[in-house]
Specification:
mainly alpha; three-stranded antiparallel sheet; 5 helices; 3 strands; globular
Length: 131
């Protein structure tokens, strides 16, 4: 009788492989280590933006969106993704918007608390929170 490997105790982490800009990326459901990495990326982004990442008076909407992507969205994408991950600048300049949306949607599906919904809450959702 051949020895069979007992797989009942193996931990399986949920993930999904996607193709973005010609690259194969694996997007993972967060682990504790990925959460730490995310905070490290966020801290580095803050330090790279005028030392603290706070808005500068008179900034337009485009700059506010770029700041949000740099400080929150990109660190979250990078932390839960393996493969040849695109840099922040590559995300802005070289990836087609549809590909970026696929990556973001996949990451949001696996890690919803890292990527708050862009759609406003319904009255029903607000009422549920109050109860």
């Amino acid at each position: 009788m051949a020895n069979k490997k007992d797989t009942s105790t193996e931990i399986q982490i949920t993930h999904k492989v996607i193709r973005i800009g010609g690259r194969s990326l694996t997007v993972w459901k967060k682990t504790f280590e990925m959460s730490i990495q995310r905070f490290t990326f966020m801290e580095a982004a803050q330090k790279s933006m005028n030392g603290h990442g706070t808005p500068v008076e008179g900034e337009g909407i485009a700059e506010i969106i770029r700041r949000g992507f740099r400080l929150n969205t990109y660190p979250s994408l990078a932390a839960c993704t393996t493969g040849k991950v695109f840099s922040h600048d590559e995300c802005l300049k070289t990836i087609e918007n549809d590909d970026l949306e696929l990556w973001l949607t996949t990451a949001r599906d696996l890690n919803p608390d890292w990527f708050p919904s862009a759609t406003p809450e319904t009255n029903e959702e607000i009422t549920e929170k109050k109860d």
